[in-house]
Design brief:
39% of the residues lie in helices and 28% in strands. It is an alpha+beta fold and 125 residues long. The protein has a single domain, classed as Trna Endonuclease, Chain: A, domain 1 (3-Layer(aba) Sandwich), CATH 3.40.1350.
Length: 125
Amino acid sequence: MQIENELATEVIGAALVIHKTFGPGLLESAYKECLFYELFKRGLFVEKEKPLPLVYEEVKMDCGYRLDIVVENKLILEIKAVESLTDIHLAQVLSYLKVSGCKLGLLMNFNVVMLKDGIRRVIRN
């Protein structure tokens, strides 16, 4: 989990740079693109819109789930630009963690005055 925590620290630093530049008010897709670019620029292996297969009773279902950003195949980033985060957003990240096998996710809402108020660490037990 140490690697995931280090990645999360790097991601939050990158997100702060983006939020400081633009503030709240952009579309989710804009923040996602900027964060992807910033992480790539920092030398991290990042994937955006990564397909997430769902396996049920050993059958791979084509459900069309896509992870916003995955960092180093270890950290899932779910990007939002909403008025406030809800329990369903948290449940979404928890489900992604369970299905993907990753241990840590960051739920990040850029539509806040202070970015620290829009970030939730989500850990799969």
